[in-house]
Sequence to fold (153 residues):
Amino acid sequence: MIAPRWPQIYPTSLAVGVGTLSFVVLGTVSALWPNPLFIRMTPAGGWEIVLLGLQSILLGLYAAIWRPTCSIRTAGVGGVLSFLGIACPVCNKVLLLLFGASALMTYYEPLRLYLALLGVVVTAFALAREWTLRSSERSKGRSRLHSPAIEGL
Fold:
């Protein structure tokens, strides 16, 4: 009898779904491509789409290996930083109210891509930490199964 493939199919489909959804939603909300919902006030370069793609891949992988007890805050901070870095600074009403348009364009605009890159790095760190913890849990589970006390039973 052939074993079902659900354990491999579910994480893969979850990773593809979360990655695709985050790419489409975040790219549309930040108006990286023309859409009828949002109009971008500052031009978007090519790096925003590349950083959005990296962030979407990392979020998809993170969703596929996520465990409910660990680093969701770190991945969330990475996602927010990345979104703030790829989004139009003038279109962000909260930043506009806090700092004003001239301060955003003078100080925030040159640092925006670095903020998006920092968000990708923070998300990659959360993914690496999650992967390491998951791997250590699996190895502990295997060592318990092969312990001398269990083998004697």
Observations:
- Residues 144-153 have pLDDT under 50 and may be disordered.
